[in-house]
Amino acid sequence: MQDSERSLISGGRVFTGDPDRPWAEAVAVEANRIVFVGDAAEAEQAAGAGARRIDAQGGLVLPGFIDGHAHLVMTGAGLLKAQLRDAPDLGEIQRRIGDWAEAHPDATRVLGRGWVHAAIPGGEPTRAMLDAVVPDRPAYIESYDYHSCWANSAALAELGIDRDTPDPVGGRIVRDPDTGEATGYLLETVVTERIWPLLNRVSDEETDRHLAAALKTYAESGVTSIVEMALEESALRAMLRAAEAGQLTARVVAHAIIHRTGEAASELAQVEAATRLTQAHRGDHLRVAGIKLISDGTIDGCTAALTEPYTNGQNADPIWDSESLDRVVVAADKAGLQIAIHAIGDKAIRSALDALEHAAQVNGTSGLRHRIEHLEYADPQDIERLGKLGVTASMQPIHADPGFLSNWAAMLGEQRAEQGFAWPLYLEAGATLAFGTDSPTASHEALTNMFVAASRKSPADASIPAHRPDWALPLADAFLHGTRESARAAFLEHTTGMLRPGFAADLVILDGDPIAEGPDSLLKAKVRLTLMNGEITHSD
Predict the structure, then answer these.
(1) How far, in Å, are 169, 298, 302, 316 from residue 319 at the CA level?
(2) pLDDT digits over 430-454, tens only?
């Protein structure tokens, strides 16, 4: 009779992620914990004669992937919108939006996501382009990075945006230079403060559906833990409902978003509210760890803050001025919150480091493992400084896909573009390097993310030259940054991220062995099985 409390995973190579024993033949599991990792005969003895047997069939067994930066409910919601990430030009974008509108005649709004700036003439969409295919309903089409939104005339009317509407702190309503009218291209805090609250007014049932869709697709891609990087109240409630029902099929470590309001009292009040959340939610499956601040925008949209202007002469200041950032960071650090700061441009990165260093000096704190997210273009001196300060480099290899870097590189210029996504420099500086996907701004697929990390090539088009292939990581190292190091960055290193006795039974079985076969094999590899906390969450 099979013992459902015990499992034996064997029949393939086991990449443990454990520096004390990197490779093994088999893993034995009891209930939700690993009890043995080693050779096959001993593992079989440890598991016992009645254990459930899971045959890896020659595939690679490795720790479950940890998405070190994602937006869980947004990912689920994004799966239901018009998909535009690979649309090559305006005509195809308009066709897909029109098809979605036709397929959803009863939808109050037309929704799409993923357009890239290089596919739009001049890199800036207009409401006229959108009115041509959606004249009768509000349409909100989010860019691939979710830092800008393209709205039609009906959407602008719904938002109450006209020529007299002032720009919010940290945001911009793009206007026609001749008439002053809003063009339909909305940037940064216009999105987070006006559009997201509107689109997020959905029922609990709808939010639950978004969460369930995201959890399912993450399990299918081998992800067993997720760092949620913009926790909102509605998403937290959905996660709590899922946890209570036993349906939270990934560990979630969440950071509450702190909105830039320009008012010190309201910003500090948000930190206080986040502190209460961290005290209330400390579970093994769901933990609120700290806060997330958005310090700048994106290079594609020319809203990332650079020390020198973009090639088109534009530039942007950080969303948080130094005084405001210091005030919030000091308060959060004093409260013991882990702080994550979105900073993409070198000026914003330097500002973020200044604030974190200042907080440590004021509060005398250390060991909180504060993080900077994205770090696409940084000054090498600041990379060294980040390592010395013990700040985690949280980066997303999928954003270095050269298939989507043409406008990014053009805006930076050749010399600066060559210094982007400098993963090896962070390692040389001694920083913890944690990998994630930033889904839904990019694919949530862990194997695709690992392919870019190990090749710097485009997973969709092999003819596109790799971006700085000399900075590609060995695939085994890439796996570590997507498992063990992401666990450490999220204070999960004693729970998961390695296959070691006493750790949670979070593991993945692939249908091949990409470490032996090389990174290109990842493009065809499939996740055969995902085990999270001893439970099978996906089986192919």
Answers:
(1) 7, 12, 13, 9
(2) 999 999 999 999 999 999 999 999 9
Identify whether the C-beta of residue 395 lies closer than 8 Å to the C-beta of residue 387: no
Instruction: Return d(Cα 111, Cα 426) in angstroms, integer.
Output: 38
4 pLDDT band, cuts 50/70/90, is low
CB neighbours (10 Å) of residue 80?
Answer: 16
Describe the crossing of helices 322-334 and 346-363 by its angle, rounded to 10 degrees.
40
Same domain, 52 and 119: no
Distances (CA, A) of 20 to 66, 501, 514: 21, 12, 22
Tell which of 174, 199, 224 closes a domain. Answer: 199
Whether residues 34 and 134 share a domain: the answer is: no
Indicate the residue among 157, 172, 199 that finishes a domain.
Answer: 199
* 347 to 91, 188, 439: CA distances (angstroms): 36, 17, 25
In a domain, 149, yes or no: yes
Same structural domain for residues 3 and 59?
yes
User: Among all chains, which residue has been given the structure tokens 């598991």?
Assistant: 47
pTM score of the predicted model: 0.93
Q: Both 171 and 97 in a single domain?
A: yes
Selection from 442, 454, 438 nearest residue 395 by Cα = 438
Q: How many domains does the chain contain in total?
A: 2
Q: Which residue in 355, 348, 350, 295 sits closest to 331, CA to CA?
A: 355
pLDDT at residue 317 is higher than 90: yes
What integer is the mean pLDDT of 395-415?
A: 97
pLDDT at position 1: 34
- CB-CB contact of 116 with 107 (8 Å): no
CA distances from 399 to 136, 440, 448 (A): 35, 12, 11
3-state helix/strand/coil string of 262-329: CCHHHHHHHHHHHHHHHHHCECCCEEEEEEEEECCCCCCCCCCCCCCCCCCCCCCCCCCCHHHHHHHH
pLDDT at 366: 80
3-state DSSP assignment of residue 536: strand
What percent of the chain has a predicted confidence (pLDDT) above 70? Answer: 99
Note whether 177 and 150 are same-domain residues. Answer: yes
Q: Check the CA dihedral 221-421-410-348 and report its sign.
A: positive
- Taking all residues of the chain, what is their mean pLDDT, rounded to a whole number? 96
CATH number at 31 reads 2.30.40.10
Range of the domain at 176: 80-199
Both structure tokens of 343: 């900073």
Domain assignment present for residue 401? The answer is no
Does 99 share its domain with 194?
yes
Q: 136 and 167, same structural domain?
A: yes
